[in-house]
Structure formats: structure tokens, C-alpha cells
């Protein structure tokens, strides 16, 4: 079963709880970033900026992009 959630940054605590729950069930979680690299024009966090956050908090984090 695949579940897709789109949440605002104010809901980040909910995101972290949901990820932890899914990992505890030995499920996989995918976090999608709209950008691979930082942009001065687009106000979103990029994959390259966010990767270390996930790697510090969870085991077996795999980072990939379509580039």
C-alpha cells in the first residue's frame, strides 16, 4: 500500500512521527524534494541541503535524483 502525504512545514512534527511509525513496521519511506540543488529563485529546501538531516536521524538513508 502506498500512501502519499503533502504537508505544510508547520506539520513537520507529524511527518517525523509518521516516518518513525513506518520505519518501526519495517516499511520504506520516500521523501521527495522539489529541487536537487539550492536555488536563489525558488524558496524550497533542496535535496542537497536536506540530505544530511535525514542521514543523521535514520539508518539506511538512500539519496537519489533524476539528474
UniProtKB/TrEMBL annotation:
Task: Tell me which InterPro entries the record gives.
Answer: P-loop_NTPase
Molecular function GO labels:
helicase activity
Is ATP-binding one of the keywords UniProt gives this record? Answer: yes
Specify the superkingdom: Bacteria
What are the alphabetically sorted keywords of the record?
ATP-binding, Helicase, Hydrolase, Nucleotide-binding
In Swiss-Prot or TrEMBL terms, this protein is called: ATP-dependent DNA helicase RecG
